[in-house]
Structure formats: C-alpha cells, structure tokens
C-alpha cells in the first residue's frame, strides 16, 4: 500500500520511531513508510512532493502627513497619519508566505510667527520658528524679516523640513500717532507762565511733570518739549516761553558822619522813582541815622527795584583814664569810646604805659573808622621817702636788734610794723624794711651776719666683754674729753655701758657732743649628742645664741640635719644678737645599716618559687613570719612578700614579688578609621604573637572596608593567652549645602551646610555649619565636613554675584529762577528724589541750593549718588559812594558775595582802596556760579581850604617904647567847607 504525502518546502516529516528527514528543495521524493497494525507491520513506498512557496517583495515608502503612499507589492494606496506597519500574505497553489513593510510618516512642520503691534513709522521684525527653511510672501528666504507697513498688514511664511512644508500667517498691526499740541507764552523774568498740551491721553514734559499743564518760571527764553501718548503710540511737540529781562537796577550807597550829605545814583534802567518821591537818576540825602532808600527802575517793559543804604556813623565819645603814682612807678592809661587811638606821646594802642617823673598831662585822639574826637588826662607823681636801717654780726643762737628810720611807718619782711625788731637768725640773713610817708613807700635792705657754731661729732662703739673701743671727735679746731684728754681720739675699755662727752671750739664759738660705748655679754652654747644607723639622718640642736655655724659642712641654723656615714664630731659657734660669740662641740655615733638583696621570681600557675636574701645577719619573712636566708611559697596568684634583715640594732626591709603567669593578658589597641584609611594594631603582654591574619609580628597594618574583628594569641615562657579587638570603619558624612540666592557686589551671603559635625569652607578657611562670605565676583565654595569620628567629605555650592552699579551724578550751578538738569551714569535705570522721577536726567528749578539723590539699578543691584543744584546769588551789586577831601583815601566795598571781582582799577578783591584827586566813577564786575553783575559808584572829592594869615609888626621893648605891651591881632581867613 502507498501514501502520497505533500510536504511544504522547509517542513519536517516525522515517522514515529524512525529517522527524521527535512526536505526544503521543491521536488518529488520516495520514502519507505511503515504501518503498524494489529495484524502486523507493513512497509510500503511513499511519494513525497515538495511544492515551491511564493517569493514576496514590497516597497517601504516615506510620506508627509496627509499624503498617500502606494505599496507596489499589492497595488494598494494607504494614507496613514502616523508611521504604520503593513503585512502582505502571498499564495502559490496551497502554499502561502507573509512579508511586512513600513510606511514612514513625517509630521508637517509646526510654524509659529508671533504677531507684532507697532506705531506708524516704526519697523517690525517677524521671526518664524518650527522649520528648517523659510520663504516669506515678500520674497526673503530668511528666518526673520523687517517690515515697515503704513497700515495693518498680513505676512505669510512657508516653512519646510525636508520635503514637508507648512504655512503660517502673522499680522503687523500699525497704530496711528497722536497729534500733540502745546501752547507758548511771553513773560518778564521772575513771572510764571502756564503751558498746556493737547491731542493725547497722557503727557511727559522734558522738565519732568506728567500733567497736561505745567507752570514755569524761566529766567531766559527757553524751549520746552512735551511727549504725548495715546495709550499705544507717542509723539512730540516743542514750544517756547519768551522771557523779557528785568532791568538790573543799581544804586550807590555810602557811609557818612552825622550831619554830612551824600549823593545816591541809580543805574541799569530808563526811568527811576525813589521812595523819597524824586524821579531823577540822583538824589541828595542827609539822614541823621542809618537809612535804607529804594529806587524802582523801568526799561519800558519790565520793572525791578533796588534797595541801598546810607550808614550814619556817630562821632566817637573818647574817654581816657588818669592816675596817681609815686616816683619811679608806672601807670597804664586806657582810652575808650573809639576804634583806633593816637596818643600825643606817639603810640597808637588803646593803652599806654608811662613812668613820668613829675605830674604830666596826656592827650589821646580816638577814631571809629570814619570820625575822630580828643580827650586829655593827667598823671600825678608823688615823691618817695628815704629809708635807712642798722645791721650787725652775732653767733648762732644769739639775738640782735635792727632799727629803721626816715619814714612815718615801717613794715619788715618778717612781719613786724615797728621801727625796731629783735632777731635770732641761725645763718647770715638779709632783712627788708618798707617805710611809708603817708603817700609813697620805699624799701631798704640790711643784714645780720651769723658766725656758725662748730658742729662737733664723736664716734660711738659697741664691744663684747673684754674688748676696747676708740672714740674720735670732729667738726672743731680743739677738743676736751670728759675723761681729761685734749686729743682728737681716745681709747676706752669700760666694763659696763658708759657715756663720754667732748667739747669742741672753732676759735670763736664752742659746742659739745655726747657719745656712748655699749658693752655686750658673750653667749653660752648648748648642743645634743645623738646616735643613729648608717643611712639615717639626725638633727643637731644648739641653744644660747641668736645665729649658729656648724662644722664640718658650714651649716647654719639653731637645728641642722646630718647623715654621717661613720661616727662624727661637730663644732657649733653661736653669735648673740649683739654679734658676741661662744663655741661648743658634740659627737654623732653611727652603726652600719644592712643592705638587702632579694631577687623576685616569676612562675606559671601551680609552680613553687624559692626567694633567697643576702646582706644581713638575720632575716624575717612576711606574711608568715618565717626566718632564715631562704623562703619557699606556692601562691595561687601573684604575691608580694617583705623580708626584714638585721645586723644588730640596725635593720632594713626589702619587698619582693612572686609573679604568676596564668592566662597571659594580651593588650591590643582598637582603632577607628575612615573608609580607605589604614589602621595599625599593636599587641603587648607576651613574648611571641600569632594574628588571625597569619602574621607573627607585634604589629600588623590592615585596611578593612567595614568594621572587622581581629584575634591575637601570645605566649610568654610556658604561659599563653589571647585577645580580640575590632577596627571600626566609620562611614563618610553626606554633606548637603543650602542653595544660595544671588547677591550684589559688596553684599554678604550665608552659606549653610549639614550632615557633618564640623565644617571648613574654602576659599577663606572659614569654619562652622553657617558662614558669611562677601565674594567680589561669582565664586564656588567647597565645604569639607568632618564627622564626630573624624571622617571627611566635601560638597560644592556657588554664590552668584551681580556687579553693583557705580552711580555717578554730575552737579551743576544755576542762577536764581533758573532750571538745571542733572545727569546720572553707571546704571541701567534711575530714580531721582525728591520727586520720584525716573530716567538718567532730572530737571528742576529749586529756589535755593538743593541736594538730590539718584538711585541707579542694573536689574538686581542698586546704588545711590547725590548731586547738588547750586543756586547762586542774584548779583545786583551795590557799592558805597563816599565823599572825601583831596589827598585822602577811601575804601570801596561791593555789597554782594561773589566768586570773583574785577574793578576798573585792576583790583580783584571785594574791597578796593582808592585815592582819587577829583570826583571819579568806579566800576566792579562780579561773577558767581552761572551769574554775573556790575556795580558803579562815584567817589566825591572836596577841595582842601586855602588858608591865608596876615603879617604884623610890633615894637621893641627897648629904648623906652611904651607900646611894647600892645596886643598884636593876627587875622586868619579860613575857608569853611
């Protein structure tokens, strides 16, 4: 029987229990087929036909979103919105196959173009994004285009990414500008004009205000600009205020004495009106007191006023003191009532010192700067008395009487007020007596000569019993002792304390001196005699004196400690408080002390040790109280024993130990390290060692990555022991830092760290979990944190520093009524105060010098500066207009405080001294910051009077002329001004 089995190429055919074959090549194959039936097993040829399967191909297109793709393997079209896989199944007869392809979909670019709103005349920039290339409907192929439409306009851009494109439209809205108007004005200097703007919603003037109307007071014709805004766009208009200047009215001033006349002259205008009623350029005034005068000047359009003054100075009332003095004295005369003075004696000071010998009159002329007056005074001179006084010579201790004469009353420098005084000076002395005759006093000096007593000296003495002393006298020429001798020195040997007297003479006076010889007893010395063992110390004690010296040894003190090796004799010398001495001797008996030698022993547990002593005659052991040279013991633990050795009266003791070596005690350190560090373990307590690491040295070095326990075994002699230790590996701290916000240069920032025990920050070497820093620029800071165990870790944080702007404001000066503009530099934006005005310029018209503050910002940081608008003074210059006599000088003074002065005389000071010969006009030009002015004055010069005196003849008194006593009259004709 046969089977025909159809197997697709590549499929396996199995026949149970037999060989498996695979047929992949198309064709017909014959095989043996087996059939197992109940009746038996049958084999029959089988024909296997392998048919060829379909071979499929398909394209894999790429399209843009919204396009259609044709799959050429199937002839179908697809329009996927995203990249999509498609499967194609092909059949050949009963065979089929699959193939998968992908249609890639590329999204169209998303083009964005922001709309723009501009004002008419401005340029807008349109910028596209979202594609690779762009094409604008206006032609350019750039990302951005600049357009300046006059009306609202739409613009289209086509963007491409590869072969895919998209289109976007943007609108440029064009807003119209407002039509701004502004009024103008005309005024006189010092007046105020109001300017009004229109045509917009809001306004900003170049002077700062943001109102529709502003009031202004310019000092000169000035243009003003207003910017109007309609909410979207702004426009500008310029207008002006025409300023007609005020006339600069001047008026001379002057200083006169009471009763004089002064001419006041006005200038700077066309017509004038004085407050006195006159309408002339000049007026003559004669005020009795200082008076102000006002003149109003007009130039035909504007008027101005000027006030001047005439200062009336009174004549000075000159005073002068007088005086009464005694001959030879000095008197001070003082003048008053004026400013300067001239005395008839020549001085020009307020006071003068005089010493006239007779009564004299003096005259002083006083001047107060303009006027002068005279006063006469006198000095009366009284005569002095002629005083005499007696003198004398005495010895010291005597008394002498001095007598004064030649006056009415007397005063001695020692105090008495009598003509005679009794005195006992100790040395030659001068005395002064002042005699008074009722008006004046005089002085006389006299003296008392004192011959000194001899200063006798005599030496004294202190001796011990049996000694002698030499007494010596001094201070005189000759001497006599109470013991009889007349020599300078004597020798004495008293048995008790005795006084001696010596009398000395210098040839004129004598004196005595008593001296003493003191007798001191010698001390009786006592001392002990001790006995001791060698090596011991004993104390020797002496008595009966104040100080002691011991030998041998040169020891000192009433008690001394000695330690002689053998029997020794000591001598002690004692001295009393009065330096007298006594001596005694003593003996110290010494017996030898035994020197013990007992070695210690070391045994292991259960062993017996024998201790042997040497160095003495007999021995006693404790504990136990046994005697003998040797001692045997088996202690359960280490034990200390004491042996006492004696060689008669002297003993010594020695301590000895029996050490038990049971369970050797091995000591080993237990270090703590940080990860990556190395630790050294060192053992002690044994002779040899074995570590759990295998090492046999006393120390080992290890680097564990985690906490680890190590074991060591040790031996010593026949005893052993072991110990364990741990090396602790501490973890590193995890350091965290707080985020720091940016600061401005010059400010400080606080850096904060956590996660450790102690912290060190760098740069700076600062310590602490929180530190304050002030970097000049953006700076990274590294903090090293250390744990309690000493392990460290680091973290980095940054402080961003923005430069603080350096704001500079330029000051300026203006004249009163003027406007000044301050300009600031160094920042991005500015705010001025007072006023809270923004912008880098600030315009103001202060009435007085004012300080303004500008705060500049660069976005994050701010700083300030100040600037002044200095308001100068109105330079209306007045000058005094004096009247002088020919040949005199006068001072012209400009009334205004200014920076500089220039006179037509060439002088450059506020005052100038002139000496005109005729009436003359003077001019001064003055300047102050931003201002200037001119003043004119006249100095009137009066001619000097011409004085004539007639001559006359008189007759001689000789030859009997009877008309010699006639009075001759001289007639003087004087011109009175």
List keywords for this structure.
single chain; 977 residues; mainly beta; five-stranded mixed β-sheet; 0% helix; flat; disordered N terminus; disordered C terminus
Walk me through the structure.
With 977 residues, the chain is mostly beta strands. Helices cover 0% and strands 54% of the residues. It has a five-stranded mixed sheet, with no helix packed on it.
Low-confidence parts lasting 5 or more residues at pLDDT below 50? 1-18, 948-977
Largest sheet: 5 strands, mixed
Strand order, largest beta sheet: 54-60-59-56-57
How many helices? The count is 0
Strand segment tally: 98
**Residue share in β-strands:** over 45%
Fraction of residues in helix: under 10%
Q: How far is the first residue's CA from the last residue's CA?
A: 185 Å
Q: Taking all residues together, what is the mean pLDDT? A: 85
Question: What would you report as the Rg, rounded to the nearest angstrom?
Answer: 68 Å
**What is the overall shape?**
flat
Q: Supply the helix-strand structural class.
A: mainly beta
SSE inventory with pairings:
Elements: E1 3-6, E2 11-13, E3 21-23, E4 27-37, E5 40-50, E6 62-64, E7 69-71, E8 76-78, E9 84-92, E10 95-106, E11 112-113, E12 116-119, E13 124-129, E14 133-136, E15 144-147, E16 153-161, E17 164-175, E18 181-182, E19 185-188, E20 193-198, E21 202-205, E22 213-216, E23 222-229, E24 234-244, E25 250-251, E26 254-257, E27 262-267, E28 271-274, E29 282-285, E30 291-298, E31 303-313, E32 319-320, E33 323-326, E34 331-336, E35 340-343, E36 351-354, E37 360-367, E38 372-382, E39 388-389, E40 392-395, E41 400-405, E42 409-412, E43 420-423, E44 429-436, E45 441-451, E46 457-458, E47 461-464, E48 469-474, E49 478-481, E50 489-492, E51 498-505, E52 510-520, E53 526-527, E54 531-533, E55 538-543, E56 547-551, E57 555-556, E58 559-562, E59 568-575, E60 581-591, E61 601-603, E62 609-612, E63 618-622, E64 630-633, E65 639-646, E66 651-660, E67 667-668, E68 672-673, E69 679-684, E70 688-691, E71 699-702, E72 708-716, E73 719-729, E74 736-737, E75 743-744, E76 749-754, E77 758-762, E78 766-767, E79 770-773, E80 779-786, ...
Parallel strand pairs: 1-5, 6-10, 12-17, 19-24, 26-31, 33-38, 40-45, 47-52, 54-60, 61-66, 68-73, 75-82, 84-90, 91-96
Antiparallel strand pairs: 2-3, 4-5, 7-8, 9-10, 11-13, 13-15, 14-16, 16-17, 18-20, 20-22, 21-23, 23-24, 25-27, 27-29, 28-30, 30-31, 32-34, 34-36, 35-37, 37-38, 39-41, 41-43, 42-44, 44-45, 46-48, 48-50, 49-51, 51-52, 53-55, 55-58, 56-57, 56-59, 59-60, 62-64, 63-65, 65-66, 67-69, 69-71, 70-72, 72-73, ...
């Amino acid at each position: 029987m046969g089977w025909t089995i159809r197997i697709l190429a590549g499929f396996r055919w199995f026949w149970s229990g037999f060989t498996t074959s695979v047929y992949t090549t198309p064709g017909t194959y014959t095989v043996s087929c087996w059939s197992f039936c109940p009746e038996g097993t049958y084999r029959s040829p089988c024909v296997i036909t392998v048919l060829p399967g379909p071979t499929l191909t398909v394209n894999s297109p790429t399209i843009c979103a919204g396009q259609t793709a044709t799959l050429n393997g199937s002839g179908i079209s697809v329009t996927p919105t995203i990249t999509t896989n498609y499967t194609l199944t092909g059949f050949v007869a009963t065979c089929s196959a699959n193939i998968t392809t992908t249609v890639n979909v590329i999204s169209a670019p998303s083009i964005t173009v922001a709309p723009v709103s501009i004002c008419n005349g401005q340029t807008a920039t349109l910028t596209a994004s979202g594609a690779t290339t762009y094409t604008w409907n206006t032609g350019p192929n750039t990302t951005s285009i600049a357009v300046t439409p006059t009306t609202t306009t739409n613009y289209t851009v086509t963007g491409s990414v590869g072969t895919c494109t998209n289109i976007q439209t943007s609108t440029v809205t064009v807003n119209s500008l407002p039509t701004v108007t502004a009024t103008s004005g005309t005024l006189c200097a010092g007046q105020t004009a109001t300017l009004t703007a229109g045509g917009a919603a809001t306004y900003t003037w170049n002077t700062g205000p943001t109102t529709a109307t502003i009031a202004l007071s310019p000092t000169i014709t000035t243009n003003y600009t207003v910017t109007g805004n309609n909410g979207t766009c702004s426009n500008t208009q310029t207008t002006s205020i025409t300023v007609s200047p005020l006339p600069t009215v001047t008026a001379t001033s002057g200083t006169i004495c009471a009763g004089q006349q002064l001419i006041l002259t006005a200038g700077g205008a066309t017509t004038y009106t004085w407050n006195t009623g006159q309408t002339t350029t000049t007026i003559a005034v004669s005020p009795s007191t200082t008076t102000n005068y006002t003149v109003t000047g007009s130039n035909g359009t504007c008027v101005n006023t000027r006030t001047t003054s005439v200062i009336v100075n009174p004549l000075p009332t000159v005073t002068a003191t007088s005086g009464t003095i005694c001959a030879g004295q000095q008197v001070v005369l003082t003048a008053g009532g004026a400013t300067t003075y001239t005395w008839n004696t020549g001085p020009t000071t307020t006071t003068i010192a005089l010493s006239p010998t007779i009564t004299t009159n003096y005259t002083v002329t006083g001047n107060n700067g303009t006027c002068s007056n005279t006063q006469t005074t006198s000095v009366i001179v009284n005569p002095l008395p002629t005083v005499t006084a007696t003198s004398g010579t005495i010895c010291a201790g005597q008394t002498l009487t001095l007598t004064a004469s030649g006056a009415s009353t007397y005063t001695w420098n020692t105090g008495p007020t009598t003509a005679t005084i009794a005195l006992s000076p100790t040395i030659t002395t001068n005395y002064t007596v002042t005699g008074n005759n009722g008006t004046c006093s005089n002085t006389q000096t006299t003296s008392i000569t004192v011959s000194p007593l001899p200063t006798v000296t005599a030496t004294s003495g202190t001796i011990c019993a049996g000694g002698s002393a030499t007494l010596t006298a001094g201070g005189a020429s000759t001497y006599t002792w109470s013991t009889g001798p007349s020599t300078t020195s004597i020798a004495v040997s008293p048995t008790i304390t005795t006084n001696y007297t010596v009398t000395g003479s210098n040839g004129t006076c004598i004196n005595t001196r008593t001296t003493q010889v003191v007798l001191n007893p010698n001390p009786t010395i006592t001392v002990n005699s001790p006995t001791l063992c060698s090596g011991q110390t004993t104390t020797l004690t002496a008595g009966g004196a104040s100080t002691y010296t011991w030998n041998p040894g040169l020891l000192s003190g009433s008690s001394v400690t000695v330690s002689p090796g053998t029997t020794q004799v000591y001598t002690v010398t004692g001295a009393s408080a009065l330096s007298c001495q006594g001596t005694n001797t003593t003996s110290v008996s010494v017996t030898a002390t035994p020197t013990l030698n007992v070695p210690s022993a070391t045994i292991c547990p259960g062993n017996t040790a024998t201790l042997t002593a040497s160095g003495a005659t007999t021995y006693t052991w404790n504990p136990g109280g046994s005697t003998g040279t040797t001692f045997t013991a088996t202690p359960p633990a280490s034990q200390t024993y004491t042996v006492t050795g004696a060689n008669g009266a002297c003993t010594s003791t020695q301590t000895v130990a029996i050490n038990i070596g049971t369970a050797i005690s091995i000591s080993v350190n237990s270090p703590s390290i940080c990860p990556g560090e190395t630790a050294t373990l060192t053992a002690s307590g044994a002779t040899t060692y074995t570590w759990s690491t295998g090492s046999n040295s006393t120390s080992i070095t290890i680097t564990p990555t985690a906490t680890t326990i190590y074991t060591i075994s040790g031996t010593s002699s026949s005893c052993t022991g072991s110990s364990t230790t741990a090396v602790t590996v501490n973890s590193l701290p995890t350091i965290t830092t707080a985020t720091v916000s940016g600061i401005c240069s010059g400010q400080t920032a606080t850096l904060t760290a956590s996660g450790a025990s102690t912290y060190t920050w760098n740069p700076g070497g600062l310590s602490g979990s929180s530190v304050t820093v002030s970097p000049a620029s953006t700076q990274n800071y590294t903090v090293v944190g250390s744990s309690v165990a000493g392990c460290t870790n680091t973290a980095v944080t940054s402080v961003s520093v923005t430069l603080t702007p350096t704001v500079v404001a330029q000051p300026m000066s203006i004249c009163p009524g003027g406007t000044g503009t301050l300009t600031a530099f160094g920042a991005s934006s500015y705010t001025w105060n007072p006023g809270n005005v923004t912008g880098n310029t600030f315009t103001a018209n202060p009435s007085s010098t004012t300080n303004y503050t500008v705060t500049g910002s660069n976005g994050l940081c701010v700083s300030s500066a100040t600037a002044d608008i200095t308001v100068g003074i109105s330079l209306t210059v007045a000058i005094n207009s004096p009247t002088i006599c020919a040949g005199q000088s006068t001072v012209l003074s400009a009334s205004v405080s200014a920076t500089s002065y220039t006179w037509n005389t060439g002088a450059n000071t506020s005052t100038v001294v002139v000496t005109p010969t005729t009436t003359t006009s003077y001019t001064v030009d003055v300047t102050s910051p931003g201002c200037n002015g001119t003043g004119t004055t006249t100095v009137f010069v009066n001619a000097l009077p011409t004085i004539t005196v007639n001559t006359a003849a008189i007759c001689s008194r000789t030859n009997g002329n009877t008309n010699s006593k006639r009075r001759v009259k001289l007639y003087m004709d004087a011109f009175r001004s």
